[in-house]
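Quick one: GNAT family N-acetyltransferase from Anaerobacillus isosaccharinicus, structure tokens please.
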Amino acid sequence: MLAFVEVREGMVEGIVKFLISDTWPFHGEENPTEELIRMKFQKGVYTADGNKSFWIIKNNENIGLIRLFDLPDPTCLFDIRLSKKQRGQGFGVEAVNWLTDYVFTNCSHINRIEGHTRNDNFAMRKTFFKCGYVKEAYHRKAWPQKGFLYDSIGYAMIREDWANKTKTLIDDKFEY
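--- reply ---
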């Protein structure tokens, strides 16, 4: 079972250590620098201006990081990272289910949670599916990384589906 602890202002060293200790192949910055992480922390990317972050903890070890953003809006987004040695063990599903419960329980104004991933990130696509998120968008050549344009896929959970433990699929047969 995982635990989740909110990141606070004084935790920048842990964020830096975690993010530079691994490679993040399905994120815009695969190998973020210490300087970039510190700059983003100082600008509130992790802890201010409608953003919150949480450590994903297993056996007293930080194994991942969740970042929620656009929290003042009716739709928020999230980013999730698990250390390489923890991937593929179901922790992503547990973490996404936790963040979904957290947002809808604590942010009554939020009606939907969105997440986006590259089309070749099959583990995350499966995680969205297992957590009840609906695939709503397919953006062709929309994710620039390493000189290549990847397709991007958007998933969402709406409050109504979360509350009713249902999955409302898109019913759009209109061809254009």
